[in-house]
Prior knowledge:
Elements: E1 4-7, E2 10-13, E3 18-24, E4 34-39, E5 46-51, E6 58-60, E7 68-73, E8 78-83, E9 92-99, E10 107-110, E11 114-119
Parallel strand pairs: 2-11
Antiparallel strand pairs: 1-3, 3-8, 4-5, 4-9, 5-6, 7-8, 9-10, 9-11
Amino acid sequence: QVQLVESGGGLVQAGDSLRLSCAASGRTFSNKNMGWFRQAPGKEREFVAGISRGGSMTLYTDSVKGRFTIARDNVKNTVSLQMNNLKPEDTAVYYCAVLTAWGKVNVDYWGQGTQVTVSS
């Protein structure tokens, strides 16, 4: 069992930056591929970014490439999402997740989510 707790969401203006953090429980964090997803009102939850176990590989959805950066610290059991140049369309609840396998969007565990609101 893995527990994930997100933090760092909030209300910002377009063009601002925000950094989300996810703290994971358990001693096997370094063996897990991690990801961030988001769900906007009235829309399906979508994959945003993923990072491999050791952090050497990352994936991003096209709409955030060049603006968002995913990173992890396997000593502190955390994964972060640095979001720069935020746009109103980035408004969503952001979820940290343990990916079932690298390259897949299947999820084994979800966090509770943190709200990000970007005003224009």
